[in-house]
């Protein structure tokens, strides 16, 4: 397979249609879902020339975690719906690629097992852990300890989900529960009334009351870097700097939360300006090509995340499929970087992107 679109087509053939829709879909009219990809198509690249070099170096360091390329695995839930090996396959592929996997709290494999699988492949894998903080702070703290003990190197708190977006494809398919045998393994012990592992239980664990005090609380409970994921407003980026978070992820949750919000690439310049280099800026949503990565880095991102492309690789071919997707994106980015006259991700500058 040569493109992410081809991986998606294969995944679609292999998956139960309701599960394909769960992975592919967005909120309501899916305007933002489409816009995330369309926005890249409107941007034009302006290469620099005569800056040749035989060797390019794609590696970056993000808050002390080295990554072989500025393309990370964004946190996505329920990998065992895509392939029986689920998160174990994804973790092995990410470790083999030498890139960071942000493990979803809503994984269908326990964080300890995911970390062990990654460690089979790389002695010191770059695993970060995504958190939905919830009202039961004791439970949150317990999961923070579990993830720390498993060896994760940062926490990524998702802040775009005070409630879950309405995904009409799931309503239409009546997809609200994981099939028997699958569970949200990190949430097994959440409490008497929420001990199961279904999608509707995940709905219960997002926290409407989430505010900056909770971020301060988490920072007081861990020495690991705390990033926040899911902001789109420059003022929130300024507040993130003010509140001392370690990094931010510009994200609209892949168009799955509030429909009609802008494409992430379109708000990136104002957010990068607001942050002014004070902390690393990551971005996800709609990255399908190396040129998309180049545009995001040029406009101020330090790295990007890919969500659905990894799921399509997993569904199409398990660990090998995820490896192929990651290596395809790496090669595509490397080529686009070279054609733009860059040797390193940091060489890309905003003047190389035109509207
Ligand atoms: C099927 C699916 C499940 C997701 N689950 C989570 C999750 O558990 N936690 C989270 O913070 N983001 C989640 N996201 C959002 C992704 O982290 C990311 O923001 C988004 O997928 C990026 O867009 P892309 O799919 O176009 O690359 C999910 C996205 C998808 C498609």
UniProtKB/TrEMBL annotation:
- Keyword Nucleotide-binding found: no
InterPro entries for this protein: Aldolase_TIM (IPR013785), Alpha-hydoxy_acid_DH_FMN (IPR012133), FMN-dep_DH (IPR000262), FMN_HAD (IPR037396), FMN_hydac_DH_AS (IPR008259)
Q: Name one Pfam family in it.
A: FMN_dh
Give the domain of life.
Bacteria
Tell me its cofactors. Answer: FMN
UniProt keyword annotations, A-Z: Flavoprotein, FMN, Oxidoreductase
Does the keyword section mention Acetylation?
A: no
Q: Where is the FMN hydroxy acid dehydrogenase domain?
A: 1-355
Q: Which family does it belong to?
A: Belongs to the FMN-dependent alpha-hydroxy acid dehydrogenase family.
Protein name from the UniProt record: Alpha-hydroxy-acid oxidizing enzyme
